[in-house]
Design a protein that fits this description.
7 strands, 7-stranded mixed beta sheet, Rossmann fold, 172 residues
Length: 172
């Protein structure tokens, strides 16, 4: 399901997703540089109860935060040469460890993602008035019942009620 959002709305969306996430939830964040993945991650972490500022794990691949509602494992796999490299850092232990895995640049390891995960794709919208608007695509891969529940919970079920729907060309 797709929805166009301002950065303020993306912050509210991140807060709802933080509230929705449960043990062993994997959230795959996909999008070009500057589309909002890290902004989403920082707001998500704060709403999840993480007290320290979220740092980019680009050079470490993963950073652990244990002071939130559940452990949060923040991955940034941008620099990985291949999807299989994810196992060298204990990936399976993280995604099956009763915490939440938030993976930036998840498209790089898409073949290694679990059978069920939340996929959030951030895209630019190209028009003069769209500089601070992004198109967000939200899916729960592998579980249509959970997807319906999630879309309702975070407010995507009414995707057609969208104040940006007439901004620029429509792609859906």
């Amino acid at each position: 399901m797709k929805k166009r959002m301002s950065f303020e709305e993306i912050d509210e969306f991140a807060k709802k997703m933080a509230d929705y996430a449960t043990e062993n939830t994997v959230i795959a964040l996909i999008g070009d540089l500057g589309t909002g993945k890290t902004t989403f991650s920082k707001t998500f972490a704060k709403a999840f109860g993480i007290k320290e500022n979220l740092k980019s794990p680009t050079f470490n691949y993963v950073l652990e935060y244990t002071d939130g509602r559940l452990p949060l494992y923040h991955f940034d796999v941008y620099r990985m040469g291949s999807a299989e490299e994810i196992y060298e850092i204990g990936y399976e232990d993280y995604i099956n460890n009763d915490g939440v895995a938030l993976i930036e640049w998840a498209n790089i390891i898409e073949t290694e993602l679990p059978k069920k995960y939340i996929r959030i794709e951030f895209s630019y919208i190209y028009c003069d008035e769209c500089e601070n608007i992004r198109e967000i695509e939200l899916e729960y891969i592998g579980d249509t019942k959970k997807e319906e529940e999630m879309l309702e919970y975070v407010g995507f079920s009414n995707w057609y009620i969208n104040k940006y729907r007439d901004t620029g060309p429509l792609w859906w």
